[in-house]
Specification:
There is one protein chain. The chain has 2 helices and 51 strands. A hairpin with a 7-residue loop joins strand 39 and strand 40.
Length: about 550
């Protein structure tokens, strides 16, 4: 066949009626255009008119220099399925190291994937298969992925690794990771392996949205523990919602995250930890100008990093646990994190502490932050049932209640009386009479595993914890710089009990704490169950 620079898919055997298997024709066309590009060095494009194109039982092995361009989301759709191969993953396009020998010297170059939809709902493997993605390419050079809608895949939706001089823009992923219970590898909306190109990978992820995916909305993961964590990666103007984690840095160096929103993610809005395949956390990152709000777990969870890391000018609010949580997971880096910086952030109305340090910090700097009105989980234990109690898919209402608004934020609700099977759900927020509940898993439309409980069902909520503070040290903190922060509570009632608490298990050594406003908290400005050693505490109001 001749190989034009632009080929209309219909002219080369693709039907797009949702019935005929279009995979063989697409593979033949990609191979022909790939051969032509290898011969003359001129990239080709497959243009796919509106239609529903079935890709059955096998993925399409992609070729360098071949682009795939549709007629738009909702117009051109590739429907993936594996009815004849229940053990085989079926991404639309794949080219990997393990299966095809992909590498720096055998890569995919000069490709664009744009303006189409991938529907992965009909791929079901007998066991969870990490390769059951929407797109699964490795070692891409000068790639562009734009205006794609990828949904309902069994594993990660956009699962491409080692992207050099590449832009991922306007990609929407929804309900990907269907078969991932939340603890397997992959299962994300956008998951990008890093490190294969060396210490610098020039990649921009911009204006993307990830909603209701099984694990992460967007994550970066170092793929070999002996590789150097790469610099050069930016995530800008993206939105993550109702995932297990919003945005995760599992092994980059100097990641820049700017102007993003991370809302309603079940465990954390932004995460740095050792949960990736190599147990390497990110380091050197900068997070600026983001809104990290109403995540049922933590706003920011940071751990297993040697540092540095900086958070500047973010809003971290209404989260169900801590606004910022410093911690280390077992199995990852345990050394003190150095040069963690929180500057000019607005950290408010989180359920527990505004900032909680449970892993060692060396020379952290907290300055210019407004840390106010935290400790919202202040309502006492309660129980109820009977008349006036009824449930919705994501709510429980007790018309006779008079709860403190926000006072049950982040608590675990237990529903079920004597002789009944008890079920639990997480409270996202509450009014005086209504609890708003998190979905039972990302992408679900209900909080309940076995149907909505009936009217009058019995329920109970646990007590509130204490103390709840603006800043808690529960680990070793050495030579901190804490200056110019406003750590107070002017709410009614006041729920932030102390501005600063040094817990019994903590050590606070040296440093400077000055020029802060610690007044207006519910009990006292400070509580020292372990006395600070050395350093200077001066000119703090309250």
């Amino acid at each position: 066949m001749t190989a034009p620079l632009t080929a209309d898919a219909h002219e080369y055997g693709l039907v797009g009626d949702g019935v005929a298997d279009d995979r063989p024709a697409l593979q033949k066309l990609v191979d022909a255009l790939g051969d032509a590009t290898a011969a003359d060095g001129r990239p080709r494009t497959v243009r796919v008119p509106a239609g529903r194109y079935a890709i059955r039982d096998r993925p399409v092995l992609w070729r360098s220099g071949v682009s795939l361009v549709g007629a738009g989301r909702g117009a051109t759709c590739f429907e993936l399925s594996n009815p004849g191969a229940p053990t085989r993953p079926v991404p639309l396009a794949w080219f990997t190291t393990a299966q095809h020998g992909a590498g720096r010297d055998r890569h995919i170059a000069d490709v664009t994937f744009a303006h189409f939809e991938i529907d992965g709902l009909r791929v079901e493997t007998e066991e969870y298969e990490v390769l059951a993605k929407g797109l699964g390419l490795q070692y891409v050079l000068r790639g562009r992925f734009t205006d794609l809608y990828i949904h309902d895949t069994a594993a990660t939706g956009f699962g491409c690794d080692f992207l050099q001089d590449t832009v991922v823009e306007g990609v929407l992923t929804e309900r990907c990771g269907r078969q991932d219970p939340g603890e397997e590898m992959g299962g994300a909306g956008i998951g990008i392996g890093v490190g294969g190109w060396g210490p610098v990978e020039r990649l921009a992820v911009t204006d993307c949205a990830a909603r209701g995916n099984g694990t992460n909305g967007i994550f970066l993961e170092l793929q070999q523990d002996h590789w150097v964590p790469p610099r050069g990666i930016r995530i800008t103007a993206c939105h993550t919602e109702d995932n297990r984690y919003g945005i995760s840095d599992w092994g980059a160096d100097g990641l820049i995250v700017t102007g993003c929103t991370m809302l309603g993610n079940h465990v954390a809005g932004f995460d740095v930890s050792a949960q990736g395949t190599t147990s390497v956390g990110g380091r050197g990152g900068i997070v600026t100008g983001c809104v990290i709000d109403a995540n049922p777990g933590d706003g920011i969870a940071l751990g297993n990093t040697p540092g540095p890391y900086g958070f500047h000018g973010n809003r971290v609010s209404n989260n169900g646990r801590y606004g910022y949580w410093e911690h280390n997971l077992a199995g990852g880096d345990q050394e003190p994190a150095t040069d963690i910086v929180l500057e000019s952030n607005d950290i408010h109305d989180n359920a527990l502490d505004g900032i909680r340090v449970e892993a060692p910090l060396h020379e952290p700097a907290f300055f210019g932050n407004r840390i106010r009105g935290n400790g919202r989980r202040a309502a006492p234990r309660t129980r109820g049932g009977g008349e006036g109690v009824h449930c919705g898919p994501l709510s429980l209402t007790d018309e006779r209640a008079d709860w403190l608004p926000g006072g049950h934020r982040g608590k675990e609700l237990t529903v079920g009386g004597p002789g009944e099977t008890e079920v639990t759900a997480v409270v996202v927020d509450n009014t005086a009479t209504r609890l708003t509940l998190a979905p039972r898993r990302p992408g679900a439309d209900t909080a309940w595993p076995d149907g909505t409980p009936g009217s009058g069902t019995a329920y109970r909520l646990p007590d509130c914890p204490a103390p709840r503070t603006g800043l808690t040290a529960a680990a070793a903190v050495t030579h901190p710089y804490v200056h110019g922060n406003r750590v107070r509570d002017d709410g009614h009632p006041r729920t932030q009990i102390h501005a600063v608490w040094i817990a019994p298990e903590a050590t606070w050594t040296g440093g400077r704490v000055s020029g802060n406003d610690f007044s207006g908290n519910a009990a006292a400005p400070t509580r020292f169950d372990s006395a600070p050693s050395g350093g200077r505490w001066r000119d703090n109001a309250g």
